[in-house]
Amino acid sequence: MRALPLGVAVVLLAATLLTGVLVGSAGLPVAGVLKALADRLPFVDVDSGLAVIDENVLFELRVPRALMAALVGGMLALAGAGYQGVFRNPLADPYLLGAAGGAGVGATLVIALVPGDPGYGVPLAAFVGAICGVFMAYALGNTAGRGNGNGMATLVLAGVAVSTFLSAVQTFVQQLKAEELQRIFSWILGGVGSADWHQLALVAPYALVSTVVLLVHGRLLDVLSVGDEEAAALGLSAARVRLTVLMAASLATACAVAVSGLIGFVGIVVPHIVRRLAGGSYRIVLPLSLLGGAAFLGLADLVARTAIKPGEIPLGVVTAFVGGPFFVAVLRASRRQVDT
């Protein structure tokens, strides 16, 4: 692991988190915020001077939101890097295998059919739906691709087919409950405005497991990048590594989608920038994508909640403004590489 890129990524993430808790519609004094944060450190006792309501704004709204944006961005970028390593394609996306479609169906069902939901049914249903969507895509791709020697391409096509089917189911449910369309679309456009400590505690274990698994497989993805035959000659089971990485990346995507809705392009933009700046080894790409994705979505959320005060732009719209043109640029670059 190179020290300079890692250090830059850590500093950028720390600066993003600090800015996220300092900036907001409520004008909190910078010195008071810094003292209040320091007071929460072990063996530190500092009087922040903040009123009770100001401390509640800081620790019940801003800090959980900043941390949730970092967690979601890190998971999406890390999952994107993992998918790109498995498929050897820089355009591979965390929503590739039906995770978004499954999460959308799960969230829509709860919003439309459970009017008394206390607020945690939607994330849970989205998480379960995302996992089910990935399982359906993998099962279909594994069945259809058996024996044809083109398993990865078949898996991608299976993901597209499952996503299309699940989108149709979601649209059908929306039409049955037209009065809930605003809530459904708000969730689909993504955001972390409702983040709290309970949600963070809910998804943190899944995020930790997927992060550890993906980071451990960085060296193995480097081996896979030279070809399956070369990997087999070194005693590596390409199928096992791909399945493990796919499952871990899908788990990371599911836990992110469950608490934030559908936020696109993070898994394409961040790993691509990391490869451009720090090299193509997945031992470098994976950890830097984790940190870079956390910082990227933190900055995007800062823009989302400050650009049109006192209103707020959906977070998915902000990332789409950045990711749409970026996706086209990556697509053109890939096309030029194929032509040459």
What report would you give on this structure?
- There is one protein chain.
- The protein is mostly helical.
- The protein has one domain (3-339): ABC transporter involved in vitamin B12 uptake, BtuC.
- The chain has 14 helices and no strands.
- The protein is globular.
- It starts with a helix and ends with a helix.
> Number of helical runs?
14
Question: What sequence of helices (H) and strands (E) makes up the elements?
Answer: HHHHHHHHHHHHHH
Q: What is the mean pLDDT? A: 86
Low-confidence stretches: none
Main β-sheet: number of strands, strand sense, barrel status? none
| Proportion in helices | over 70%
Rough shape? globular
Q: Strand tally, please?
A: 0
Give the class-level CATH name.
Mainly Alpha
Q: Report the radius of gyration as a whole number of Å.
A: 21 Å
Number of domain modules: 1
- Secondary-structure-derived class: mainly alpha
By CATH, the superfamily comes out as: ABC transporter involved in vitamin B12 uptake, BtuC
Any idea of the CATH topology?
Answer: ABC transporter involved in vitamin B12 uptake, BtuC
Task: Using the 3D structure, state the CATH architecture.
Answer: Orthogonal Bundle
Strand content: under 5%
